[in-house]
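hey
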């Protein structure tokens, strides 16, 4: 069986009791740091905590060479540890689908996701989010197109920041967007740093002002706010994200 286990958002202690038990009892344990990273720990600490030797998977192991994992899981219990919740990454859902098509059973042990963490840290309502996108180090209009689509339906946009070759910071992401279209800087956004840690940082302001805010160490993620806010969203952003008073004009 192929077992996907979410590790949560920050360090090895975020794994669930069920996930920990399954990892300790599996025939083989793997981990991947391609789709996301656990910034509060490292491989050696994870191995000590679980009590197992862990094989690190590269992108090719999950995609082009996924046959090897799938065939191994036909007769053995193979665990793949991932940061966050496993099925948020399309790479993992594609691997699971391919395994099931080949008659290899799969199961998922869910964990905390950046999607739910963003709502918890900011107070933004989950049902107000539209499509998400990734800001890449190689500039693309895709994030801007997604933002505009979401604005047209009064929805927030969750923007993931590229991890390779190094984790992108919020200011990097905003600068990339503004080089493509400077008008984006006038929109309101919320930056979130180190979700899941004991010292997360959350700040709301216009994007062009967030460039100058020091969010500290990664991982970072960015939300571009919708044109209208629920009054409770505004109040939460004032309390939890030090939002400027002018944000109140977005309240419906």
């Amino acid at each position: 069986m192929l077992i996907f286990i979410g590790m949560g958002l920050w360090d090895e202690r975020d794994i669930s009791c069920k996930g920990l038990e399954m990892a300790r009892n599996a025939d083989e344990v793997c981990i991947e740091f391609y789709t996301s990273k656990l910034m509060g720990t490292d491989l050696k600490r994870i191995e000590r905590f679980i009590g197992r030797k862990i094989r690190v998977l590269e992108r090719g192991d999950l995609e082009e060479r996924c046959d090897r994992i799938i065939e191994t899981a036909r007769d053995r219990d193979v665990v793949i540890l991932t940061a966050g919740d496993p099925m948020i990454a399309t790479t993992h859902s594609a691997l699971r689908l391919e395994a099931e098509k080949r008659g290899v059973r799969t199961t998922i042990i869910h964990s905390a996701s950046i999607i739910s963490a963003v709502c918890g840290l900011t107070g933004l309502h989950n049902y107000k989010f539209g499509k998400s996108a990734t800001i890449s180090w190689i500039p693309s209009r895709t994030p801007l197109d997604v933002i505009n689509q979401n604005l047209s339906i009064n929805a927030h946009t969750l923007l993931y920041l590229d991890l390779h070759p190094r984790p992108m910071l919020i200011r990097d992401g905003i600068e990339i967007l503004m080089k493509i279209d400077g008008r984006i800087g006038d929109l309101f956004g919320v930056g979130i740093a180190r979700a899941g840690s004991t010292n997360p940082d959350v700040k709301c302001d216009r994007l062009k002002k967030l460039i100058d805010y020091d969010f500290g160490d990664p991982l970072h993620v960015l939300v571009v706010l919708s044109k209208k806010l629920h009054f409770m969203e505004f109040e939460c952003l004032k309390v939890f994200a030090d939002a400027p008073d002018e944000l109140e004009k977005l309240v419906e």
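Residues 90-101 form the longest helix (12 residues). The chain has ten helices and ten strands.
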